[in-house]
Design goal:
With 111 residues, the protein is an alpha/beta fold. It folds into 2 domains: 1-54; 56-111, no CATH class. It is built from 4 helices and 6 strands, in the order E-H-E-E-E-H-E-H-E-H. It has helices at 16-24, 57-63, 76-88, 104-110; strands at residues 2-7, 29-34, 42-43, 48-52, 70-72, 96-98. Helix 2 (57-63) crosses helix 3 (76-88). It is globular and about 30 Å long.
Length: 111
């Protein structure tokens, strides 16, 4: 299993202890991207790889597993880019799961 997460800094990761525990048990490999922190890009002994900067479409294209299912959550532009990258990389639409979230102030306007 693969877990990919992008966030601003390591402090923004509420699931980190759980993810690191799963990685240490060799139950998944995690890639953590930090857009506002500058950690050294490295893989630690637990199967967690950190990256400085945002996840790019080029990186995702290189990492695509066409047999995997993808569950995407995040800001609108991030999700649209990730979905487009996966589709362009040959991932069938049936294997891409996502949900767009509407900000609370917009919920009043749309329903």
């Amino acid at each position: 299993m693969r877990y990919i997460h992008t966030t601003r800094t390591p402090r923004n990761g509420s699931l980190w202890p759980y993810i690191r525990d799963l990685a240490a048990k060799d139950m998944l490999h995690a890639d953590l991207f930090y857009s506002r922190a500058t950690p050294q890009a490295a893989q630690d002994a637990t199967g967690v790889t950190t990256h400085a900067g945002r996840m790019t479409p080029a990186w995702l294209t290189h990492e695509i597993d066409r047999s995997a299912s993808y569950y995407i959550c995040g800001p609108d532009s991030f999700m649209r880019d990730a979905i487009a990258t996966l589709k362009a990389g040959g991932v069938p639409e049936s294997q891409i799961r996502f949900e767009f979230f509407v900000p609370r102030r917009m919920r009043v306007l749309v329903g």
